[in-house]
Specification:
Blueprint (H helix, E strand, L loop, with lengths): L25 E5 L5 H10 L3 E6 L2 H8 L8 E5 L7 H8 L5 E4 L6 H11 L2 E4 L5 H5 L1 H6 L3 E3 L8 H15 L3 E13 L17 H6 L5 E5 L2 E5 L10 E7 L2 E9 L6 H4 L7 E9 L2 H10 L17 H12 L11 H11 L7 H9 L14 H12 L8 E12 L5 E11 L13 H18 L7 E3 L4 H12 L7 E5 L3 E4 L14 H9 L3 E5 L8 H6 L3 E3 L12 E3 L14 E4 L10 H11 L2 E4 L4 E2 L2 E2 L5 H18 L1
Parallel strand pairs: 1-2, 1-4, 2-3, 4-5, 5-6, 6-15, 7-12, 17-18, 17-20, 18-19, 20-21, 21-22
Antiparallel strand pairs: 7-13, 8-9, 10-11, 11-12, 13-14, 14-16, 23-24
Length: 642
């Protein structure tokens, strides 16, 4: 019976394709969770036998109910926490061709060690940990392959990004900046109020833990560390992405250490790299509050949470963290909300507080057994309140932004965007596969099939960042009846009107009328706020300009053209952008050497308006009209004096 995700033509119901050379091969799968059904469904559609291993046989039985080719799936009970787990591995590993782990990341090295012992390939969708990386020489020595980071994030993000990066490099271009952001969210019509809209498509513990992880990235040549306590701090970073024809704004924040990917993606020239996570507007405010209030604290409390209501748990967490500002044991929800508002330097109408009330933090419901730390208490609330309904769909949003420079000096911004929705119930699909489950498991399933068909020759511990692997997987998933596809595009040229710093300069190089002409012609126009510009910022906003804070142009993307009238700030910083202005540096004026040196050091370019000519004549010049205006002003002032 054909899988609904297979790229080849569907056969009639009940008939399975035997055309794959992988048919009859065996996969040993460890871990049976939310993401595994699409993988099993895909593999068995090509006649690949899957043995599913889990501690709880009922989980495997549930998966079997979601797979058509049940005859190709067998079950093995396996508990990696058992004292004799290695003996159990010795019993089941020899029976397979490839071992796959969808278990929690700390378990992977143990399964990988067994793969090495028994001469088996090892695949997982998880990050390459230090322990896994250490196994690479041994995998290579034995001629074995271990593919890691082959899900969605990590996984499809690597493949789609590396495809564009390699194409730019093949044209002699350089990647000056790279930003890669991904998020699993509810489809727009399935949102709830929490944090702008969020539901669980993977472990809530992992989501809440993200607020405790430090972020390390590189921006304009400098490494930046952002503590976990600050990743949600304002001002929030935002991207506007087209979702089903509607311009949708998403918040995003940096995710862990982005800097190693300069090497992983082979782009040593890259000066800015940030990998991040998308969420709906309002998320950062709510998660910042959760972190501030200690509701995602992993510290184990010596209390019996199951003897408390959620309201009492909220009081307990507050009193443990605030010795000098204790709440009464019988505090009401209003008492707790007022305490939270004080800690957040806000009031009880703060959306974060209403979100906590909505999720049940101030309720009289009992906390379930098994909680050890505040983060566990919060997880139980999320699990109870933020599940997807029967007819609701999730959504994966991913976008890469590439800031590119070519040999001839031209620059552009490229994007690669994925918008993918979960599937509802269809006759040919045995269960409702979420977008998260499909994008996590199907790229890995494709890689497994490729190896079983002997189409991957590489050995060692690797990521899917070489053309032979990423092109094949991206091509396969794009041909599914419900495709997983990336849309690549070049963004219009961006012009950024900066605030003038020269004292007394109230003129502007761009009027709202001309800005509108540029926008209508396809340009993107950003205008900085200015207290001195002769035209109010509202006039620019009316015609569709994006508004930026005063003097924020240095953080603009590399390809942005910075437009001004007169001199730049004399702060000695490297100039990395293309600038249009009257620079006053070609006639021996004071500071000319220093200014040009800043352009040379930063790699930027100067388009001096004084030398802009058309048919041999200067286009921008203060000639006869300027002299006449000056004469008129002089006579006017002289007349007033008299």
């Amino acid at each position: 019976r054909r899988c609904p995700f297979a790229s080849r033509p569907r056969t009639s119901p009940g008939i399975m394709s035997k055309s794959s050379p992988a048919a009859g091969k065996k996969v040993l799968l460890f871990g049976v969770g939310l993401s595994t059904p699409p993988m099993i469904h895909y593999l068995t559609s090509f006649g690949i036998q899957v043995t599913a291993c889990a501690r709880n046989p009922s989980k495997i039985e549930k998966v079997l109910n979601e797979v058509k080719e049940k005859s190709l799936v067998t079950m093995e009970k396996f508990d990696i926490s058992a004292p004799d787990y290695e003996k159990r591995l010795d019993e089941i590993c020899p029976k397979c061709d490839i071992m796959v782990s969808m278990m929690p990341p700390p378990c992977h090295p143990k399964i990988a060690a067994a793969a090495l012992k028994h001469g088996k390939h090892f695949f997982t969708s998880s990050y390459v940990s230090d322990d896994m990386a250490k196994l690479s020489p041994e995998f290579a020595k034995k001629g074995l392959l271990s593919i890691n980071e082959c899900g969605v994030d990590p996984g499809l993000d690597h493949m789609s990004a590396k495809k564009v990066i390699d194409e730019v490099h093949s044209k002699g271009g350089k990647i000056l900046g790279f930003f890669s952001v991904c998020g699993g969210l509810p489809a727009p019509d399935c949102n709830n109020p929490f944090g702008g809209g969020y539901k669980i498509s993977w472990t809530p513990y992992g989501v809440l833990s993200a607020g405790t992880n430090n972020a390390l990235f590189k921006f304009q040549g400098q490494n930046v560390t952002k503590p976990g306590t600050e990743i949600y701090d304002p001002p929030e970073w935002k991207h506007v992405i087209d979702v089903e024809g509607k311009a949708t704004t998403f918040e995003w924040y940096p995710n862990r250490d982005s800097t190693p990917y300069i090497e992983h993606y082979n782009m040593p020239e890259c000066q800015s790299i940030i990998r991040g996570t998308y969420r709906n507007n309002g998320w950062c405010n709510t998660l910042r509050a959760i972190a501030t209030l200690g509701l995602n604290d992993k510290t184990e409390y010596k209390v019996k949470w199951e003897d408390m209501t959620y309201l009492q748990a909220a009081v307990t967490i507050w009193n443990t963290r605030n010795a000098d500002d204790q709440l009464d044991a019988k505090a009401t929800p209003e008492d707790v909300k007022k305490a939270y508002a004080k800690a957040l330097k806000s009031d009880t109408t703060n959306k974060a507080i209403t979100d906590l009330e909505w999720v049940g933090m101030f309720s009289d419901d009992k906390v379930p057994a098994g909680c050890k730390a505040p983060i566990d208490v919060m997880c139980t609330l999320w699990t109870a309140k933020m599940q997807y309904g029967e007819d609701e769909k999730d959504m994966i949003v991913m976008q890469h932004i590439f800031e590119v420079e070519y040999k001839n000096g031209t620059r552009e911004e490229l994007t690669s965007t994925l918008i993918n929705f979960g599937l509802g119930k269809y006759a040919h699909i045995p269960s409702k596969f979420t977008s998260m489950a499909r994008t996590v498991s199907l790229p890995l399933a494709c890689a497994i099939r490729m190896k079983l068909e002997d189409r991957i020759k590489t050995t060692g511990v690797i990521r899917p960042v070489t053309p032979d692997i990423y092109n094949a997987i991206l091509d396969e998933v794009s041909k599914f009846p419900h495709p997983i596809t990336f849309k690549e595009a070049a963004l219009p040229t961006a012009i950024w009107l900066r605030h003038e710093v020269k004292p007394g300069e109230e003129r502007t190089a761009l009027t709202p009328e001309t800005a509108k002409e540029l926008i209508d012609a396809g340009f993107r126009v950003t205008v900085e706020k200015s207290t001195t510009r002769c035209i109010p910022i509202e006039e620019y906003e009316k015609v569709g300009c994006k508004i930026a804070e005063t003097a924020s142009w240095p953080s603009a993307p590399y390809p942005t053209i910075i437009l001004g009238l007169k001199e730049l700030p004399e702060d000695g910083t490297d100039l990395i952008h293309r600038h249009i202005l009257f620079a006053h540096c070609y006639k021996g004026q004071a500071g000319w050497k220093e200014l040009l040196a800043r352009f040379k050091k930063g790699g930027g370019s100067l388009y001096d308006l004084e030398f802009l000519k058309l048919n041999g004549r200067r286009v921008a010049a203060f000639g006869r009209p300027a002299g006449m205006a000056g004469m008129g002003l002089g006579r006017w002032e002289k007349g007033e004096e008299e």
